[in-house]
């Protein structure tokens, strides 16, 4: 199965088909009024990226172990909210493209701390922006992945380029911590870049499933597959004791909040599928449907326990480093429906 991500439109007005097309169209409709209001004031994209904007990027990606400056990150988000949402994704002056191009340049810098901060900022823009902005960023990234960057001499958002040769500099200046830093960078880069392919900012695709608005069984199964993969990638992002810092925990905090929200959506969506399986899978091979639901249910039971343990392990550490309180529990109740699919007696 291929990921049902939003494809970049071939031209203005092209919004794709299926679930992605519907989401893209909804956002395009929501954007029209905002575009009309802001277009006259921001016709030239270069106006977004004045020396002030460049300074914000330099401040938020400063090569140290501190978290990205919160005030500067908020200012970056505020600037993004003023962007004209032009759906011509090929324009070199499109502000979303310029922002992503600059972040990609930071991602490819040899200092892993700069790369981590750039990833963290990209994660913020993809997950905590407005619905309209996160969808445009997602579509733009998908288009740029097919293009080569002159600066990095690779395709944009190629994770192997992010993990290229780096000097052996860890938080403690030794090779052991350096390897652990690069390992964390690898897992976090995989998570953020895969998240950008699979889901829009607030996991809107699964939000539709939670509200019962997905009519296609295939659409719903696809979203569950993607959620399953992303939850596994998120759990792989672990901060070892030797590389604990504000920076690594800033990245981990973003992942933890994602995991809690995504698990809840996976749990709710799978429950919906099990409630309706008798009529949702009428056209499927019965054995294939049974194996599919057993796989999802087994994963749900296992991943819930893993996320709960992760919250218990990192919650106190995040608080120690001054991060806002993260959830300490997820819903790991013994749901008879999941147990029945796996063959466990309630």
From TrEMBL:
Pfam families: ANTH (PF07651). Residues 111-299 form the AP180 N-terminal homology (ANTH) domain. GO terms for molecular function: phospholipid binding. InterPro entries: ANTH_dom (IPR011417), ENTH_VHS (IPR008942). This is AP180 N-terminal homology (ANTH) domain-containing protein. It comes from Rhizochromulina marina.
